[in-house]
Amino acid sequence: KTSTPIAQKMIVLMVAEKPSISQSIAHLLSDGKPKSRKGYSSHCSVHEFHSVFQGKPAEFRVTSVLGHVYGTDFYPEYQNWKSVDPVTLFEAPIRKTESMPNANVCKHLRKEAKGVDYLVLWLDCDREGENICFEVIENTKPKMNHHPGQQIF
User: Fold this and answer.
1) What percent of the chain has pLDDT over 90?
2) Neighbouring C-beta atoms of residue 133, cutoff 10 Å
């Protein structure tokens, strides 16, 4: 991936934990004038506006996830509680799956992150929020433009 030329306006993607929070953030930061559109996930709108980020003109995209992006579970052969010895579950493999596959949140994040210069995370400051941050970063960072210095806030 190439860096965005300095003369080009930078793009900042902001991700909140739920749609109502992303809407409130966009409304406040845009002086009540964001343009909203549906994202790849019909559950997560994208609110866009222009402002300043780190002293430079920027295009902002504010969107959300729907809580956890991923969940973990045992493979089917370990899910029959009548036939599985609970002690084996301590060593049983687990799989990571999209929490709400029909909501397409992972695809939504990857699409919105394409060509973005900075990622700003608006999630709760607790263990659950931290976990969701890493789930968002996993989906967005590979699609972002790469620059030296901090790009994720």
Assistant:
1) 88
2) 19
